[in-house]
């Protein structure tokens, strides 16, 4: 019997706003200088205050699916690898690069012997063995378990009830970790920087039972910072420098305070008053500051798209009708959305996989360019599709609800979509439900919606990270989309074509075409972040894939 995977990989619009030292005449301690060994001019007080616009859903790396959680884990935990400033995976708990067999089926990691948990225990190979077996165990219901499928016996454990103890992982000794694959996975090493692959302390997790990851007290740290002050539902927490971290000499911040604030205007007012160091801008705010010396735009490996739920409460929705999906997909102007509503550097997206993520292994052509353009804005086509849908469904009127996060940006997008769809498709009424982040995740997981403003940020630099999402049994196929040919192409890319880069690439191109030709989803935009950032905040790493931010090397420069 196949495991029914549950979970939600919504990585929409989670952003941090960095707050550093205020620039006031009496703030002498923050403006004084102390140089470290690398010559950095450090402010005496290394305190950073961050603002998140969404709640933290979970502190359990096995259960997390969102940017907020992964950002937390990237500060307070560490895996075999970590992403550097250029988004390259570099050894972290692995003391050297992994040794890989010629056939790509065996990976041997030598671990550092000086890494400890915040309870004083050594981090050992068994922590990885335990964590990975826990993730693939169906009892855990880990949404990202599918990423382990290339490992020996992982699929049989997840889908056929095999014993998790048979997973192809082994602690050769305390500081040597061996992984045996069933099929080669070309991007396997890059996954080692992703939080779902981080170690977990077996004794602590077992003792905590169901409480594990529900508060900062029910979590352990082995990363640059320890986690404090999160009670599970409150909207604030902090990171404190970990005194036992193996690389603490390269961690400069003493404390990072985090609070959830959702209003851009509030953050911008604080920024203008020199109370905030970094603020994300959209719409009129972004237009206002273009050309400012502190203004910057970073395009991200993130796709925003419309998710069409085809099955709700056991009943087919109007969106199970392909003509209805095609009508909605053609009804909204992506260029208008990005240039006038967002105005933050985001670009209209013409497919599922965003540009600049991956290139053809033979020709080096970008996946997005080679795959082509799908589902353009076309009001005449929208009306034609809608007329066909009304005839097939036997009704002229449709009330469709649209769920999205309740932050300011998503509210603007929702209002835009409502206006565009209702104007293009007379007879459709869009009912907007703006929900707290955690609530929306639950509603989407339960498929208790019609339309959703979906989104995905790349966990690793490969098109399969997006194409995988809409496979019939994917935990992120939260809309009951299903196509047997699509599923087979994905399976081929992971099995018979796993070691044939060109054939694998063609599988993924063909799969995306099927999905978009059927309007299984419809693209909106490739996300970018327009920001204002003070010059004295240094070395905050903004990653294009995986966990969004790294503060390990960040510091406040004396000013």
Helicity, as a percent range? 25-40%
CATH superfamily of the largest domain: Dipeptide-binding Protein, Domain 1
Overall number of strands: 26
Q: Which radius of gyration do the C-alpha atoms yield?
A: 24 Å
Low-confidence stretches: 1-30
Shape verdict: globular
Q: Helical element count?
A: 17
In whole angstroms, the N-to-C terminal distance is: 62 Å
Average pLDDT taken over every residue: 91
User: What characterizes the major β-sheet?
Assistant: 7 strands, mixed
* Helix/strand class: alpha+beta
* Strand residues, percent: 15-25%
CATH topology of the largest domain: Dipeptide-binding Protein, domain 1
Q: Work out the count of structural domains.
A: 2
Features:
Dipeptide-binding Protein, domain 1; disordered N terminus; globular; 2 domains; alpha+beta; Dipeptide-binding Protein, domain 3; five-stranded mixed beta sheet; 559 residues; 22% strand; seven-stranded mixed beta sheet
Description:
With 559 residues, this protein is of the alpha+beta class. It folds into two domains: 16-262 and 534-556, Alpha-Beta Complex (Dipeptide-binding Protein, domain 1), CATH 3.90.76.10; 299-528, Dipeptide-binding Protein, Domain 3 (Dipeptide-binding Protein, domain 3, Roll). The protein is 28% helix and 22% strand. The chain has 17 helices and 26 strands. The strands form eight sheets. Strands 14, 15, 18, 19, 20, 21 and 22 form a seven-stranded mixed β-sheet that branches. It has a five-stranded mixed β-sheet with strand order 1-4-13-12-11, with helices on one face. A hairpin with a 6-residue loop joins strand 24 and strand 25 (549-550). Helix 9 packs antiparallel against helix 12 (379-393) and helix 16 runs antiparallel to helix 17. It is globular. Residues 1-18 form the signal peptide. Its main location: other.
